[in-house]
């Protein structure tokens, strides 16, 4: 590969990896509901448990759908086991 081709490849990779949605995908609607329910359901089973003392679940929906969020971000809205 020539120098120009290498430079173009490097620039494309930098742009791809620097995109925030690469690390934190946008999750909306039923997909978000499914993921939140799965993450917040205790490993022993039962109903999902949400920690809303200092957190706003509608804020989670807005944040995940507009800006993207990680599984770690979502887990912050679950009760501690």
Automatic annotation (TrEMBL):
Give the matching PROSITE patterns: INSULIN
An example of a Pfam family matching this protein is Ins_beta
Nucleotide-binding: present as a keyword of the record? no
Major place of residence: secreted
Could you say which residues form the signal peptide?
Answer: 1-23
| UniProt protein name | Insulin-like domain-containing protein
Compartments where found: Secreted
The Swiss-Prot or TrEMBL record describes its family as follows: Belongs to the insulin family.
The organism that produces this protein has a lineage beginning with:
Eukaryota, Metazoa, Ecdysozoa, Nematoda, Chromadorea
Q: What GO cellular component term, any one, is given?
A: extracellular region
A GO term, aspect molecular function: hormone activity
What SUPFAM superfamilies does the record tag this protein with? Insulin-like
Q: Which keywords appear in this protein's UniProt record, sorted alphabetically?
A: Disulfide bond, Secreted, Signal
Location of the Insulin-like domain:
25-78
């Amino acid at each position: 590969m020539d120098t120009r081709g290498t430079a173009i490849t490097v620039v494309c990779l930098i742009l791809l990896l620097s995109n925030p949605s690469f690390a934190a995908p946008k999750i909306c609607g039923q997909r978000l509901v499914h993921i939140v329910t799965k993450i917040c359901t205790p490993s022993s089973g039962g109903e999902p448990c949400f920690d809303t003392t200092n957190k706003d679940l509608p804020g989670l929906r807005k944040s995940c759908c507009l800006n993207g969020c990680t599984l770690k971000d979502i887990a912050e809205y679950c009760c501690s086991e």
